[in-house]
Amino acid sequence: MTAPNLTPAASESRPAPQGERVLCAMSGGVDSSVTAALLKDQGYQVIGAMMRFWPDDKRTDTFDSCCSPDAAYEARRVAEQVGVPFYLLDYREAFQRHIVGPFLDEYARGRTPNPCVNCNTKVKFDELVKKAKMLGCRYVATGHYVKRVENARGEVEFHRGDDPRKDQTYFLWGTPRDALPYILFPVGELEKPRVREIAAERGLLTAQKPESQNICFVPGKVQDFVAEHLPQAQGKIREIRGGEVVGEHLGTQFYTLGQKKGLGLYQTHRVRHVVHLDPATNTVWVGDYEDCLWTGLRAAGANYLLDLAELPRELEVQVRYRTAPVRATVVHADEHGFELRFAEPQFAVAPGQSAVLYAGPWLLGGGLIADHARTLPA
Fold first, then answer.
1. What was the pLDDT predicted at 9?
2. Run of H or E including 190
3. Which of 78, 107, 315, 353 would staple 33 via disulfide (CB 3.0–4.6 Å)?
4. Which residues are annotated as a binding site for ATP?
5. CA-CA distance, 310 to 294, in Å (whole number)?
6. What is the mean pLDDT of residues 192-206?
7. Which class is domain 291-369?
8. Fold of 231-287
9. 262 phi and psi, to 5 degrees?
10. How far apart are alpha carbons 236 and 228 in whole angstroms?
11. Please, are residues 271 and 260 in contact by the beta-carbon 8 Å criterion?
12. 40 strand-pairing partners
């Protein structure tokens, strides 16, 4: 694999509007509200749209902060303030099929999913791009804190947003490469306080709206949601060194790698972590901190935002949204997945989460972390 062309690119690429039509995804939040306003100022023909995910029997405390009936009302009001048309698009069936179902399936497999990554990949930047084409729109725009950069070869790249606290490239590694030229991120070069200032200056009703933090379709705790949908089955908690039974559990779906609280072990004088989940035998394996360190990872379902031949051998990988990227070496990579070796061992790299690849600020792609090979006691 050869190193990619890292020639400094221009700042965020801004296609000349020339009356081009753009479908702006509006969630009823301040980021997408300002996105619509900025696009209108730049001369685009803006169409506001919100994707409806909530079902008719919406449960209390679900879809409340975003993608809710109230959020749809606010998005429509903002569209009126900005002076653009607004449509509510029905994606309930696609959301259940691509997001909620696989979310539960992953927990049943002893993995830890990230539904926001799946939603951006399978729904927002797949279904929405198709809808944009149907409406005669050249572009789709969102309020993600991501920079759209054009390199020296005229190719569009996604780079980290200028606000390091809000950068959202981690969630977009699965974007189809051929869709990159048709996606705009007007707030990618702004910091969050400035976005709120712009909204306040324009009198947008979402200027001070709180941010959404939780999984939109999960009321309360994830464990409670999983318990409602997956059957409980009593099993053993075993030591990774020797196989000693040190506790019992009601299902591997209630645990994640690295977890140390709520294990209910027989011996309480030692701190132990979950180091492996085996749904096939309904066993939770625990061990010391050192037992939960990974020297590398394997990822499947890869998506690359550059030619595979240009993937650098030395790069950075981010294995959780709220953790810093770490240096890694590419041991192997093909169109299906990749294997990395970390420069330093990493704690609790959870299968089902995303391994997202970077060269500095440039998003290169990613994949889903696969179950790691581990030698278990007989």
1. 43
2. none
3. 78
4. 25-32, 51, 143
5. 26
6. 96
7. mainly beta
8. SH3 type barrels. (2.30.30)
9. 70, 20
10. 21
11. yes
12. none
pLDDT of amino acid 2: 47
| Four-way CATH pick for 21-201: 3.40.980.20, 3.30.450.40, 2.170.150.70, 3.40.50.620 | 3.40.50.620
The Cα-based distances of 190 to 82, 91, 325, 361 in angstroms read: 19, 30, 22, 16
Residue corresponding to tokens 């709220």: 322
Alpha-carbon distance values, 120 to 52, 129, 175 (Å)? 14, 11, 8
Question: Which candidate in 24, 66, 67, 216 is catalytic?
Answer: 216
Segments of the chain assigned to CATH 3.40.50.620: 21-201
Cα dist from 332 to 39, 317, 336, 349, 362, whole Å: 42, 14, 11, 18, 20
Residue 181: CB atoms within 10 A of its CB come to: 16
Lowest mean pLDDT among 89-103, 153-167, 204-218: 204-218
Which helix (H) or strand (E) covers residue 27, if one does? none
Active site residue 216: yes
Residue 350 and residue 256 in contact, taking contact as beta carbons nearer than 8 Å: yes
Catalytic residue among 24, 66, 67, 119: 119
Calpha distance 46→32 (Å, rounded): 12
Is the pTM higher than 0.85? The answer reads yes
∠ CA 116-355-165, rounded to 5°:
60
d(C-alpha 257, C-alpha 155), whole Å: 39
- Residue 171's closest CA among 123, 89, 220, 114? 114
- As annotated, the residues of the chain forming the CATH 2.30.30.280 domain(s) are 231-287
Percent of the chain whose pLDDT exceeds 70:
91
